[in-house]
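In the current project phase, the collection of sequences with tokenised folds has grown. A representative record is quoted in full directly below:
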Amino acid sequence: MISENLSRLSRRKFLRNSAYVASGLAASTAISACNASTTSSPSQSPTQSKVQDTLYIYGWATYVDNEEILKDFTAETGIKIVGDSYDSNEVMLAKLQASSGKSNYSAIYPSDYMVTQMIAPGLLAKVDKTKIPNLSNLDRSFVKNAYDPENVYSVPISWGTTGIAYNVKAVQKSIGSEPKDWSYLWEHKEQLKGKLTLLNDVREVMAMALHTLKYDYNSTDAAQIKQAFEKLQELKPSVASFETDAWRDRLIAGDLAVAMAFSGDGLSVARQNPDVKYIIPESGASIWTDTIAIPKDAPNTEAAYIWINYLLRPEVAAKVSNSNSFGTTNKSAIDRIAPDLKNIAAWSPTQESIDKGGRLVKLDPAILQIYESYWTKLTST
């Protein structure tokens, strides 16, 4: 049976300043828990004197609002978790920059391109791998990456795609066919009026438009970026809203026909309701990796290391993936993934499908400003 959390959690669900504080044991519990084996507990952890009993984390709702994982961690270690969530990397970055490195957060969840963007200005601490023995459970393909080679500043936790979620009955009724690629949105824009949502994410939406024009996902050409904006303007009359999560219930009900979605969200809804499907477009999709990192000058780094090491246990990594429907970076967790999830083709894309897609990368501030300017025009007019 799919966990009740499945209908509630979403990678990008925005719960501004929502906090969940896991009830805990005495802080002394943390030390006894940390002396167990590396694959079954957060082992080789720092001494009690260095560990504060409350860990503040900041990330996508799926990572900071999973009560089962948080409660289990607290019960074992005595470390309470307080989690705040955001709906975009840019919101997280702005908040940390505004704090001038003095935020309370000791663990954050930037996506791949944002890791690169945060390294240059020195916003992230280097990872002390001696404190994370469960790193050995990672699939090496996620260690050899371009955004943070050898994971000097971040640890990959989950991965997925940005594709299309749709209600089969709704598209069959209004259009008569099911989507296979992004071009479907433009080909049937008249029938989709008021029944389509796009993500509230400038980089993802602009990248999708650039891709449909056969340009690079990360184009720095001002003319190409303008063309992507104009392409989206053509679609704008059909867009009911730009939203990252609130489309879910309306798609299930059939009030929406199609939603641009992150794979974890799309697959979670599809697992709940057989009328909903999530696909990776034939021409390719954005591929992303979510990581966990420690901010520079974090106040409770030792507890953060205990938390990261805990998340890298195979059984815990599998619980996370089974709950939020993301792909796992943990090679030792694959055998524990729920069959109903593992058997969905879009959960584990073929290499051919991955090769057709691309990853978002860090862009220079001047280029980002061009993107933001067009995004403001697109979403406010």
Observations:
- The domain at 160-287+349-380 is CATH 3.40.190.10 (D-Maltodextrin-Binding Protein; domain 2).
- The longest helix spans residues 365-380.
- The two ends are 44 Å apart (CA to CA).
- The chain has a mean pLDDT of 87.
